[in-house]
Amino acid sequence: MATLSTHVLDTAAGRPAAGIPVALLDLDGEVLAEATTDDDGRVASLGGRLETRTYRLRFVTAGHLGEHAFFPEVEVVFRVLDDRHHHVPLLLSPYGYSTYRGS
């Protein structure tokens, strides 16, 4: 079974985004696991071993970006199709974000 980690970088500030709440959900919205990014903006392991299916990662960014954040939350939908480790980084700025499958 696959494993999952994530990393949030604040590209506008040029540093990791510490203290971001992150939740792993199924497609029905059921919370499967929750964590908060560490001082390096990382969650080393989330959700234990993952089955082959589609998941959501929800990042609550309002606390980091401020009360007037354009994106108070970011949700990334991804599929686990194999038993490898999955790393889903989030690059965050006040008016944009991007993500990719990392290693």
Automatic annotation (TrEMBL):
Its EC number is 3.5.2.17. Residues 4-102 form the Transthyretin/hydroxyisourate hydrolase domain. One of its GO terms (biological process) is purine nucleobase metabolic process. The keyword Hydrolase applies. Keywords: Hydrolase, Purine metabolism. One of its GO terms (molecular function) is hydroxyisourate hydrolase activity. It catalyses: 5-hydroxyisourate + H2O = 5-hydroxy-2-oxo-4-ureido-2,5-dihydro-1H-imidazole-5-carboxylate + H(+). The keyword Hydrolase applies. It comes from the Bacteria. SUPFAM superfamilies: Transthyretin (synonym: prealbumin). Homotetramer. Catalyzes the hydrolysis of 5-hydroxyisourate (HIU) to 2-oxo-4-hydroxy-4-carboxy-5-ureidoimidazoline (OHCU). Belongs to the transthyretin family. 5-hydroxyisourate hydrolase subfamily. This is 5-hydroxyisourate hydrolase. The lineage of its organism: Bacteria, Bacillati, Actinomycetota, Actinomycetes, Propionibacteriales.
